[in-house]
Design goal:
This protein is an alpha+beta fold. It has six helices and three strands, in the order αβββααααα. A hairpin with a 2-residue loop joins β2 and β3.
């Protein structure tokens, strides 16, 4: 079925209930081909809400990851957009991160391994978790301590702005 027709169908059906879950949304599955082991082969996206996606090594794993993200979104916001509607992409503020630009560039290179030519978007809400798939941030906390002499292991959410501020305030 055409994606927009599927979205229209799910939109119309959404009026028959008040609460929606993943099965009420129009989904698109795609198998991705990549030579990088860091890119999972499967992605499932909610049609017209492209930032809401799940990744996995199988279709089912991608679906379960999307389901979890959707549940987290409902818990955070208290509501979900109506299925089938277009949800605009919202970017978090970069106002405070811009004040740390000298640290940001150095950190991207020395801690995360990005070179200057690679464009990386970091917002005030970005986290270490956005840059790896490991079970913990411990490896990065250690690297930050080695490079900057600052212990940030208590910043459990890995928020980069908090980390940059701590690095900037070091004695």
């Amino acid at each position: 079925m055409d994606e927009q027709l599927s979205a229209l169908w799910k939109y119309l059906i959404s009026f028959t209930k008040r609460k929606w879950d993943i099965d009420d949304y129009p989904l698109r599955y795609r198998h991705q081909f990549s030579e990088s082991p860091d890119v999972p082969p499967w992605i499932v996206q909610i049609i017209n809400w492209w930032s809401m996606a799940g990744f996995g090594n199988s279709k089912e794993e991608a679906y379960q990851n999307l389901k979890k993200r959707l549940e987290n979104k409902l818990e955070e916001d208290g509501f979900l957009p109506r299925p089938g509607t277009k949800v605009p992409i919202e970017f978090a503020s970069t106002e405070e991160i811009e004040e740390c630009s000298d640290i940001v560039n150095d950190f991207l290179e020395k801690v995360l391994g990005f070179d200057e030519e690679k464009a990386v978007f970091i917002s005030d809400e970005s986290s270490l978790w956005d840059f790896h798939r490991e079970d913990s941030n411990e490896k990065y906390y250690k690297k930050i301590k080695d490079v900057y002499g600052v212990d940030v292991s208590d910043i459990k959410d890995g928020n980069l702005l908090k980390i940059f501020k701590r690095i900037g305030n070091r004695s």
